[in-house]
């Protein structure tokens, strides 16, 4: 459910015509609906209301400060994977006591910042990382709360690039090594093993991989308990999928019910790290048609947003619905919607039936709120798009479109003024 709709012929975000936003801020432009975001967060949070839990929104999905601040207001925590995400989360008002730090490659500087902030927990992904965190915490006179990320070797049946819980993936530790890690953590003065962590992948549309993973996690926890290691937090990661096209992922309520059923009576606080399911359908990317051409072989619609603005179609072959901002009686034609980047892989849609369009028309790329702007780049020296947040009948610029000056910020010509 989202708040992008056609009260008449024109696409609205909540109570604002999309065209009005574009008149003010131009294209390409990401537009987010606050009501959708809040609704998704609340539905997810509610789904776990019968057990002790903490929803740590996965900042990587969309890290705009306004989005984070909106979630902070609702009581969300954060799942971060870098010092930059820690900085953002804290700036947006998410308390450090609700922040978990995941990721395979945490640097010393990032670990230090997280220890200084006194975050809730490190989700540790290797024995070397564990030792480093322990040594640094001891040196700083602190005790780091840690969970080891176990790799349950479960196939989430999703795109290989976003599947993480198989033994061949770089994530987490196999169970025997994780056990060794917990023994080590128990002995090291700078470490307090308080949780177990697991994340198997993203855009998962079935419940069974989650339940299989949970089963393995529970078995592993029993093993820990046999050794006298008691944990408090059970972090099950993110990964719940959304409908981009005809997928039918379980509603968060069912996801919640299924997990809660397995956990009833157990004394753990459940941590969840949803990203996509909170913000994915709360955002769209609006782009303008520049040209159309028919090569005899194919019809192309060339738009002003490219793979640098929304990488998902090019990178994963992902499907995003594309709709005209103004609905008119037009013939349907099968087209490739392509961007201005000098690569044949620069497309937003291929072989897509769309109402015929003309230069100047606006198109909305749907479900672009997660892994959209955050994955945008400046490739081909293209300034990154503006981001706008809609609340009822108001709209706010929450990130300015980049300027050409932004593009060259920090670059130095060594033989010019004072640098030679
Ligand atoms: N927790 C961890 C440890 C993760 O690695 C991820 C996502 C999440 C939580 C959030 O997962 P979500 O609920 O959003 O599925 N760029 C890709 C997705 C990469 C996901 C990486 N990890 C895409 O556009 O599909």
TrEMBL record:
Lyase as UniProt keyword: yes
Name of this chain's protein: Diaminopimelate decarboxylase
Family: Belongs to the Orn/Lys/Arg decarboxylase class-II family. LysA subfamily.
Annotated catalytic residues: 342 (proton donor)
Enzyme class of the recorded protein, top EC level: lyase
Keywords: Amino-acid biosynthesis, Decarboxylase, Lyase, Lysine biosynthesis, Pyridoxal phosphate
Organism this protein belongs to: Thermosulfuriphilus ammonigenes
Residue(s) carrying N6-(pyridoxal phosphate)lysine: 60
InterPro entries xrefs: Ala_racemase/Decarboxylase_C, DAP_deCOOHase_LysA, De-COase2_C, De-COase2_CS, De-COase2_N, Orn/DAP/Arg_de-COase, PLP-binding_barrel
């Amino acid at each position: 459910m989202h708040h992008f709709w056609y009260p008449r012929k024109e696409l609205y975000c909540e109570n604002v015509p999309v065209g009005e936003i574009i008149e003010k801020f131009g294209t390409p432009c990401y537009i987010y609906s606050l009501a959708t975001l809040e609704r998704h967060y609340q539905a997810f949070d509610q789904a776990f209301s019968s057990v002790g839990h903490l929803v740590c929104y996965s900042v990587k999905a969309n890290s705009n400060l306004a989005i984070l601040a909106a979630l902070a207001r609702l009581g969300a925590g954060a799942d971060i994977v870098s010092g930059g995400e820690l900085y953002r989360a804290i700036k947006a008002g998410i308390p450090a006591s609700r922040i978990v730090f995941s990721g395979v490659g945490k640097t010393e500087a990032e670990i230090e910042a997280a220890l200084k902030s006194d975050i809730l927990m490190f989700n540790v992904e290797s024995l070397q990382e564990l030792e480093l965190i322990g040594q640094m915490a001891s040196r700083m006179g602190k005790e780091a709360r840690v969970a080891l990320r176990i790799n349950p070797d479960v196939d989430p049946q999703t795109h290989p690039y976003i599947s993480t819980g198989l033994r061949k993936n770089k994530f987490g530790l196999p169970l025997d090594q994780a056990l060794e890690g917990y023994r080590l953590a128990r002995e090291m003065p700078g470490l307090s093993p308080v949780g177990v962590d697991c994340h198997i992948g993203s855009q998962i549309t079935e419940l069974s991989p989650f339940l299989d993973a949970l089963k393995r996690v529970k078995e592993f926890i029993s093993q820990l308990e046999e050794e006298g290691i008691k944990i408090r937090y059970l972090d099950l990661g993110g990964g719940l999928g959304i409908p981009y096209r005809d997928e039918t992922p379980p509603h968060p309520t069912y996801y919640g019910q299924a997990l809660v059923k397995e956990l009833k009576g157990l004394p753990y606080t459940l941590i969840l790290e949803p990203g996509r399911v909170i913000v994915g359908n709360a955002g769209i990317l609006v782009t303008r048609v520049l040209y159309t051409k028919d090569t005899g072989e194919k019809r192309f619609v060339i738009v002003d947003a490219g793979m640098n603005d929304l990488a998902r179609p090019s990178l994963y072959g992902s499907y995003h619905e594309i709709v005209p901002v103004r609905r008119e009686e037009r013939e349907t034609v099968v087209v490739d919607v392509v961007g201005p980047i000098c690569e044949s892989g620069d497309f937003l849609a291929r072989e897509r039936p769309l109402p015929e369009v003309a230069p100047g028309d606006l198109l909305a790329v749907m479900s672009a709120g997660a892994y959209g702007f955050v994955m945008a780049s400046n490739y081909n020296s293209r300034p990154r798009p503006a981001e706008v947040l809609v609340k009822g009948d108001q709209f706010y610029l929450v990130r300015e479109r980049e300027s050409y000056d932004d593009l060259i910020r920090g670059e130095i010509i060594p033989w010019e003024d004072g640098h030679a």
